[in-house]
Amino acid sequence: MARRLRPAGLDFVRTAPVRLVFVRxxxxxxxxxxxxxxxxxxxxxxxxxxxxxxxxxGDGRAVRLRGGVRFEESVIAAEAPEVYAYRVDVTNMPGAxxxxxxxxxxxxxxxxxxxMTFALDGTAPFRLVWTLARPGVGRSFRDAVGKLDRRLAQxxxxxxxxxxxxxxxxG
Length: 171
Hints:
Elements: E1 3-4, H1 12-15, E2 18-26, H2 30-38, H3 44-47, E3 51-57, E4 60-65, E5 70-79, E6 83-91, E7 96-108, E8 111-122, H4 124-132, H5 134-153
Antiparallel strand pairs: 1-6, 2-8, 3-4, 4-5, 5-6, 6-7, 7-8
């Protein structure tokens, strides 16, 4: 059952009862990573394994995770190329009361320092589960940033069109 969460702003990232902060360096520049986060929403499943879909919805995003968890989110900060943050407004995850995720990007050598903060509040069991999940969530974040970095290093994706492709207007 979907439930509406308490609205939280960017300040919640510093004051939340549960804060999971993860950092990884990437070879890609902050502006490239920012574009992937804020503009290429449908590309998220290609680099963040737990995500099955992200699509624009109103002033925010609709997100589905593998396993059936759903979120309706509002973007609360999009300051290119330094910060991208969103608040979960509605979710079917039991026990959640308030939720903000913040991505901070800064130059690091010729690449970027990527920091993601999960700021959470919920019932005691919800907070305990997230505290215990910290190592797995951290691994997932680091793997996702690595996969995004490799994807960005490959450059723009091009779809090859052949004469046998019914979507092609050629031949």
